[in-house]
Amino acid sequence: MGISDRLVRRIAKTELGLKPYKLRKVQLLTEKNKLVRLRRCPKLLRWAVSQCWERFLFTDEKLFTVQQVHNSQNDEFWCVDTPSTSAIVQHRQYQKSVMV
Fold first, then answer.
1. How far apart are CA 22 and CA 90, in angstroms?
2. pLDDT computed for residue 39 by the predictor
3. 25 φ, ψ (degrees, to nearest 5)
4. H-assigned helices in the chain
5. Distance (Å, whole) CA 92 – CA 84
6. For 88, how many CA atoms within 13 A lie in the half-sphere containing its CB?
7. Of the residues 3, 22, 53, 56, which has the maximum number of CB atoms within 10 A of its CB?
8. What pTM was estimated for this model as a whole?
9. Is the Cβ–Cβ distance between 64 and 100 less than 8 Å?
């Protein structure tokens, strides 16, 4: 169209009153997940204090996932008011994947 990105952004801000917003990434939690987390917290705290984790060996592995990656640098939208819950990207903790 013969118009620069910067000019489009300037027009959107000054003349249209729009503001850029980025999508927020949140964990998809069900009520069952929340209860399980509450039950595990004391056990994990005791484990961390006991320093049993020093006996573990961490190796190099690669996890390939199926879920699309959310890139916060590229995913941006413009609106007049502050977005509500529509500006959320939900992701699952345990998605389909393969370890190589």
1. 14
2. 93
3. -95, 125
4. 5-14, 31-50
5. 21
6. 8
7. 22
8. 0.37
9. yes
